[in-house]
Structures
1.
Amino acid sequence: MIAPILVLLLGVGQGVGQADRLVGAVREEREGWVRITIAGKPAEIGYQHGALLAPEIADAKAVIADEMRGSTGKDWAWFRDTAKELYWDKVTPELKAEMKGIAEGAAAKGTKIDVWDILALNAHIELEGYYLPWLKGQASQKEACSAFVATGSWTKEGKPVMGHSFWWGWTSGQRFKAVLDVTPAEGHRYLMDALPGFVHSGTDWAINDAGMVLCETTISGFAGYDPEGIPEFVRMRRAVQFGDSIDAMAAIFREGNNGGYANAWLMADAKTGEIGKLELGLKHTPLAKTKDGVFYGANFPEHPSILKDEIPNGWNTNPSQNGCEARRLRWKQVLTADKGKIDTESAKRYLADTKDVVTGETKAGDGTLCGRGGWGGAIQAKVTDGTMIKAMRYEGRMGAPDGVPLKLAAPGRKFLKDMPVRAWVGLGR
C-alpha cells in the first residue's frame, strides 16, 4: 500500500520575512522520496530549496564529509577550499546566486552551513572520482548505474521508454532522495532527483517541459581531466534547464567539457520520438541518435575512439571477468526478447532483474542489472515513457529495485541505515 502524501505548505508559522520567501513552496514525502516544488529567480529557488530540505542538507553534508575523509584522506576543509579554487569562477552567476540561496535558506532553519559547503557538496563527486585520480596519473574508479532507452518499433506504443537504476555506496547513496520540481525564471521547468543541496542531479535523472529526459551511467576505467574546464555539475544543470533537443543538450555538455564525471548520457525527445547516447569522454564525445532502436549503459566504454584513447588500462570484454560486460549482455538479452513490447512495466522488471548471465543463477551481484555487493549497489530506480515525459512525470522506487529489504545498519557505522521495501510511486504534479 502506498503511504499517504505528507504536504507541508512552507510559510505557516514562520517569521514574516521567511514566510514571504516561502509562499507557494511545497514539500511532500512519499515512499522514501522527499519532493519539493519551488519557483522563481535563482536566489529565490535556492532559498526555498535550502529551507525545505534543511534537515536533509545537514545530514548530507555530515555523511559526505565523513565518506570523503575515508575514501581520500582529505578533510572537509580541503573539499571546500579546492572546490572554491577550481570551480567558483566557472560557475554561472545564476548558479552562484542559487547556491548562496540554498545556504541562506538552510541556515535560516538552524543548519550550520555556508555557500562553500554547498559548492563542495556539488563538486565532491568530481573532486574525489576524477580530479584526485588525475593528479596521481590514475584512471577513475567510478562505476555506477544501469540504464536503457528505447523507441519506435522496440516499444509497445512506439514512443520513448527509459529506465535507470542508481548504483552508489550504501551510506551516501541513501541520501539521494530529493525530487526537485523547479520552475526557474529563465529556461525550462525541470523535475530531477538529487542529493539535497545539489543544483544538479548527481544520480543523474531529469525531465524538462520541452519534452526531454536524460539519465546516465558512468564510463568505467576512464582517465582524463582538464582543470581549466567547466565542471560537470554546471553543464548537467544547464543541459536540463535549457536543452530542448538531443543536439542542444549534447552541445551544452560538450561546451567547456573538463572530463569530470565522465558518463554515457542516454536521452529521449518525446516531441519527436528520437533517442540518443552521448559518450562524454574528454578527447572524444561521440553522439548516436535514432528514432527506431535502443541504447543501454552499464559502465562499459563503447565507441572505438574512447576505448583507444581514454581507457589507459585497456578493457576486458569477458563477461565472466567483468561485471559491466555481463550486464551489457543481459541488457541485450532482455531488450531483444521484449522488442515491440517494451513499456514502463517491463522497464521495472529489467531494473529488478538479478539473473547472472555467467552462472545462470538468480542472485544480485556486480554483474546483474539490479546490482548488489558489500560496498553498495542499486539503491533506487526510475522509469518513464513518452506520455509521462510530456506530463512531467515519472515513477520511482526508493530502495532495492527488486524489492528486497536490506539489513545494512552495523555497529560503528553511525550513518548507515537499513533499506526497507518501498513501493513504486508516481512522482510529479
2.
Amino acid sequence: MINIDAHNHVRGKSIYLDDIQELQGTLYALPFDATVAHAKIKSLNLEAALHRKGIVTILTAKDILGENQIGGILPDEPLFADGEVHFRGQVIALIIGTSEHHCRQAAKLIEVVYEELPVITDAREAQKQDKLIIPPRSFKLGNTSEAWSQCDHIFEGRTDVNGQEHLYIETQGAYARPKEDGSIIISSSTQGPTAVQRMVARVLGIPMHKVEIDTVRLGGGFGGKEDQATPWAVMVALASQLLHKPVKMAMHRMDDMRMTGKRHPYSADFKIGLTKDFKIVAYEVTHYQNAGAAADLSPAVMERTLFHSTNAYFIPNVIAKAYSCKTNLPPNTAFRGFGGPQGKFVIEAAIVKAAESLGVAPAVIQKANLVVDGDELSYGQILQQVEARNAWESCMEKYDYEAQKKRVATFNASNSRYKKGLAIQPICFGISFTNTMMNHARALVHIYHDGSVVVSTGAVEMGQGVNTKMLQIVTETFGIPNHRVRIESTNTLRVANTSPTAASAGADLNGKALQMACVALSDRLKAVAQKEYSDATIDLKEEKVFANGVPTDISCNDLVMKAFTQRVALSENSHYSTPTIHYDKTKEKGHPFAYHVYGTAIHEVTVDCLRGTYDFDSVNIVHDFGKSMNIDIDNGQIEGGLVQGIGWMTLEEIIYNNQGRLVSNALSTYKVPDIYSVPKEINIIHLDTQGHELAIKKSKAVGEPPLMYGIGAYFAIRDAVKAFNPNVEFAVNAPYTPEKVLMDLYKKS
C-alpha cells in the first residue's frame, strides 16, 4: 500500500498549519526575544511599540493568567522571561497585531536594558562549575576496577559530537480560536498534543477539558516538535484567551532556528580494555551533555544515551556515567534517536582507536563482540531474539564484503589523489519510551450505518507514514477497501491522555490499541453473522461475509446494518499498554525496552585528497524489519534516516560563539545534505526474521534506528584519510566537514 497522503502531497492539497482557513478578525503573533545569552532585565519599554500602527497589545509575564511555567520534566522553563534571561532567543514578550509586518516593525521599537551576566556555552565548563540540570546518573555492570588487570590492551580517548538542527520543512506554529464558556481550540504543529494541552491549561489557569488541541499532520518533526512545539501554542492561546480573538503564529525560518533547541552536543571521555583475541573486557565512558538553559527533555535524552552506550556489543564490565550540563544556549531537545546516536558514536570511536593502535580493521573487534541471546546489558535487561550476528553475517555475505575490501585496497594502491574508505556500522536499538508510564495508547473507532469507518488515535502523522499503517490495520481487520476508512486528525477531545508520537513507538502503541478496537468490533459483527451461519467459521474480507471460506450473500454493509438494528455497539474505545517493561531508577536496573532492532551497514566513500571533499559511493544495509507491514514506507524510513545521520556526521555544524549567539542561523550558513550528498547507491535487504510479538503485526519500529547507520559515514571518511595520511593520530570530532578532512589529510605528526 502506498502512503495514503502521497496524492494530496504532490498536488499541494495536504492541509498543514499554515493552510488552515483563517477566521475573520484573526490576529498575528510575533515573539520578541532576548539578544543576549545571560542577563538581568533592568528595564523593558514597550510604549513606542504599543503605539505603532496595527498593534493590538504586547504581552509579558505579568499578563499570564495562570502559571508562567512550561517545563515538562522539570518546572524550570518560564513561558516569558521574567526579570532574567538565560539564552539568546528566550522570549520576553509577545507582540499581537493585525499583520505580521506590523508586529515586526513594532519589535524594532521595543527598548530593553540588560545587566549582562557570565555566559557558559561549553558542557565541560558547566560541569566544572556544578551547573547541572539533574544529578549525574551511572549504569554499571560487572567490576571495571578489577577487569582492567585482565586486559592485554587498554586505550583512552575523547570524543566530541555536535548538535543538529531539526530543519523540519514546516516551521513551528499554532493557531488558537476562542470557544464559548472560556474554552479554546488550538491547531498546533506538535508531536505531543496532550503535552500542549496540559501546558496551555497551566498557563491559562483553566482545566484541561476546556483546551482542545487538534493536529492534522506535521511538515516534519524529528523530535523538534515534541516539547518544543509547546511554547508557541501556549503563547497564541494566551493571546486568544485575553483578547477573545483568533490568534495565529507561523514562525520564520531564521526565528525558528535562533529560538529553538537542537540535538544535544556531547563531549565524552572513554577507556576501553581488550584481550589478545580482541574481546572487550571493560569499558568506561563519561558523557557531558550540553542541555542548554532548561531541562526540556534533556534528562530523558541523557538516560537513553546511557541505555545505548555499548551499542551492539556485549561488554561484561561497564561504567557509563552522564552529566546533563546547564549552559546559556536554547534548551536542547529530542532529535531522532533521542540520545542513542551520541552514546553509540563514542563506543565506535573507542573501537576504532583500539583497532588503529593494534593495526587491525575495526571490523575485527566489532564482529568479536556482537551481542547474542542471553547477554546482559549495563541496565540489567537480558537480550532475547537477538539478530545482531545474523544481520552482520548476512550483510557480509549478501554484499560480498571481502571482494569489496580487495577492490578498495587495489584502488588505494593505484591512486594518489583519491582514496577510498570502508566502515561497518552495526546497530542495536531499544524500542519503547524509557519512562514506563508513557508506554500506552488509546484508539476510538466508529462504524457508520453504511459500513464506512472513522478512526482516531494518538498518533501524529509527520511524514513517516503512520496514518497508512493505521489504515492497513483497519482494512485488513474488516476486509474493506481504503476508501471506506477515514483517519481523523489527532485531537485531545477524541483521544485523551496520549503520549507523544516519538521514540519510534507511534505505530506500535497506537497500532496495538487500534487493532484491539477493530478486533472487538469485528468479533461483534461476526457474532451477528453467526446467527445465520451457526456452524460456520465467519470471516470478513473483500467487503463480504465468508462462511467456511465461501462468500455469502451478505455484504459487509448489510452486516453492519443488521448489527445496528440488533442494537449491537458499533463504536469501540480501546486501551493498550506495553507488557513486560519496567525500570527501577533507584537501582538503574530493569527491562525498559519491549524489543530491540538490529542491522548492519557497510559504507564506502571516496575522498578527494586535494580538496578534502568526499562522495559516498554506496551504503549497503541489512536491516531487521521483523515482518514489515509496509515495505515501501519502511524502506523510505531507512533511506531518510540514513541520509539524516550522514548529514549529522559530516556536514551539519551548529556553531554558537562564546556569547551564545547562533552563527549557523540560516540555510546559507548551515549546510544540510542535498541530492549530491546522498550516497550514489543505497541498497537495503530485509533480514529474514520472525519479528516480535510486541511490534504491531510483528513489524518492528523503523523511525529512529536507521539514523544510527549514518555514524559509519564518519569512520568511512576517517578510513580514507588514514589511507592517505597513515601515521598521524586524529581527533574524533563530528561532524567531519570537508574543512576538517582537509586539515587531517595534511596534518603532520
3.
Amino acid sequence: MNNIKNSVFYVTVIGGFTALIYWVISKGASLEVGRNIVKKSVESNHWKDFLHSMIENLQHPLAILLAQIVTIILVARLFGWFFRKIGQPSVIGEMIAGIVLGPSLVGMYFPEFSAALFPKESLGNLQFLSQIGLILFMFVIGMELDLKVLKNKAHDAVVISHASIVIPFALGLSLAFFIYETYAPLGVEFSSFGLFMGIAMSITAFPVLARIVQERGMQKTKLGTIAITCAAADDITAWCILAVVIAIVKAGSLSSSLYVIGMAILYVIIMLKIVRPFLKRVGDLNATRESLNKPVVAIFFITLLISAYASELIGIHALFGAFLAGAIMPENNKFRNLFIEKVEDVSIIVLLPLFFVFTGLRTQIGLLNDPELWKITGLIILVAVVGKFFGSALAAKFMGQNWKDSLAIGALMNTRGLMELVVLNIGYDLGVLSAEIFTMMVIMALVTTFMTGPALDFIEFIFKDKITAVQQEIGSKSKYKILLSFATPEKGKKLLKIANSLVKKQADNSIVTAMHLSLSTEIHSFDVKEHEKKMLLPVIEESHALNQDMVSLHKVSSDIDSDIIDTANQGEYDLLLVGLGQSIFDGTLLGKILGFTTRIVNPDRLIDKFTGKEGLFENNPFDERTRHIILKSKMPVGIFIDKDLEEVNQVLMPIFSKEDAFLIEYAKKLINNNGSQITVLDAGGEVKNTREIQETIRSIEQIAPNHIMIMNDRTLKKEFLESQDLMIISLDSWKKLIESQSIWLNNSPSVLILKP
C-alpha cells in the first residue's frame, strides 16, 4: 500500500511540474519579440554539428589540461614500473617519461600529436600545477628528514656531506670558467652562471637515496645510517646554499643580496624559534587519526603556504619555504606519517609527473647536434661524478670508514634524481642556464642517478663481501626450512600456526623464517624501525606462545612478489607459505578487461605464454602476485585462504588424482608433529588403486592408527565441513573445484592450497 502511495505521489509531482516547465517555456517564447535574438544556424545534419561541438570541447583549455594529466600519469607510471623491474628507482623512469613526451622524441617523430597535446598556450597551466606539486613534494621531503638522527650522528655526517658539497661546487665553478664564454646565455654574469653550475653539481637526492638504502636492506647497517644522515645534512645545507645563490642571482651581486640574505636568516629564525614550538604543541595534542581533523590540517597547510609565500617574497624561492615548513613539523613519527598520507599521494602520483614532463618539454636533446656539444656533456658528467662520488668517498675514508663503505657512500651521494631537476628548472627560469646547458645537465642528472645501483653492485663484487640476509638466516641445508611471507601481522600469525603444526616436534631439524616485505613507496626513512616492529612483533609474540623458534626478516622492496621468489629460491627453502592476495581487477566487466590487458602487457607473463608455461586465455583463480610466485618458485608453495583458523587439529585432505599423492607426506608431518586428525577423501578412487598412497597410509596407521581415516563419500555434509579446521588440497584439484563451482567452496573451512 505504501509503495502505491509513493508511486502516485512521484508521478503526480514529476508529471505536474514537468507540464508547468513546458508551459512556462512555451509562453516565454512570446517575450522574445523585438529583442534581436540571433538563432544558432543549424548545418545540413545534426551529426556534423555534434562533431563540430566535440572538436571545440577538445580544444578547451580545461579539456587539454585533463588530457595532459591523464597521459602524463599513465606514461610516468608505465616507465616507473619498467625501471623498477630492471632494478632502478622509479624516478629514473618518470624523468625519462618526461623527456620522451617532450620534443626529444614524441615532438620530433609525432609533431602534430605533440602540438595537439601540448600546445604552447597550455604550458603555463602545466607549469603552474607542476609548481604546486613541487611545493607539496618539498614539504614531504622536509617531513621525511629525521632530525634526531642528524643530532646523534652530526659530526661525521656534517664533515662528509659538506665535503661532498664544497668539492663538486668548486669543480662545477671551475668548469663554468671554461665554458662560460661559449655556452652561457648573453647578459648573464659569470658569478650567476658559475654559482648555479656549482650548486647543480653539489645536489644529492635524499628521497631517492633513502629508497635505495631501504630496498637494499641497508637501513640497519652502519653504512646505511651514515649514508642517510649524510644525505639529510647535504639536503639541508644544499638548500640553504641554493637560497643564497638565488638571492645573489636575483640581486646581481653579493653586496646587493645582503638584505635578502639577512631577511632569509630572520625568516629561518622565526620559523625555528616561534613557529616550530607552536606546531609541536598542536602536533602533541592531535597525534591520532581521529583528532587530526580539518581545522588542525588547515593550520599546517596554512603554515606551508605562508612559509612558501614568505620565502618567495624575500627572494629565495617558494620551494625553500616549503622544505623548511616540512622540516619544522612535529617530530612525532606517528603524526608525520598521518600528515604525509594526506599530502604524498596527490603530490607524487598526480602533480609531480607534471613537473617531469614540463622539464622534458624544456629538454631538447636535438639541440646537441654537434660532437663538441656531446664532449661538453661528457665533461659535465665526469666533473659531476669526480666531484660528488670521489669527493664523498675520500671524505668518508678520512673519517675512518673502510674503502668499501667509503666508495658505497660516494656512489649513494652521487644520486641526484629529482632534486637536480628542481635546481636546473630554477636556473632556467631565472635565465641563468641556456637551453643547451639545461639539456646537458638533465642528461647528467639521469646518468648519475642511473649509475648508483650498478656502482653499488660493482663495489660489492670488487670487495667480494656479498653475504645476503637470506644466507645468514637459513642455516644448515640439512634442516627442513619453511619460509612464510605475510602482508599483515594477523596473516603472519595464522601462517605461523600452520608452519608450527608441520615441524613442532622437530625443532632441532627445522627452521621457520617469517618475512614481511614493505613497499618502498609506502614507508619512509624515519619510520622503518617503527614499521618493522609493528609488523613483526605480533608474529614474534605468537611464536613465543607456540614455543616455536623463529627467524624474523623484514625487507623494504620495490617489487614484492619478485623479492619473495628470490628470497625463497636463494634460501633453498623446502616450503613457502603465502596468503592469497585479491586482484583489483576481479568482479566487474571493466576490471576483467583491464586485468586481461595487464596480463598481456606484463613482460614476465608474455614470456611464459610464448614458452607455453601459461595459456593466453587461461582462467586462473589467483591474483597476479600469487600466480607469479607459484610459477617462479622452485620449491613447494602453500597458498593459504583464511576462514578464522584457530587450530590445525581436524584436517580434510581430498585426493582427486594420482598426482595428489604428495599430500600424504604433509598428512604424515601433521600427525607426527601436531597429532592432527586427518580425513583423506578418496574423491577419485585413487587411494584404493594407487599402491604408493596405500603404503604411505599403512605406515602412518602403524604408528598412529587413530589419526588417519579414509572417506569414500564425495557428498560431504555441511556439518562435517564446518567441523574441520583446515582443508589441504593440491593446486590442480583446487582449480577443478573452482571450475565445477563445487558446493564445498561455500562451506569449506580455511584452505591450504599446495603446489608440489
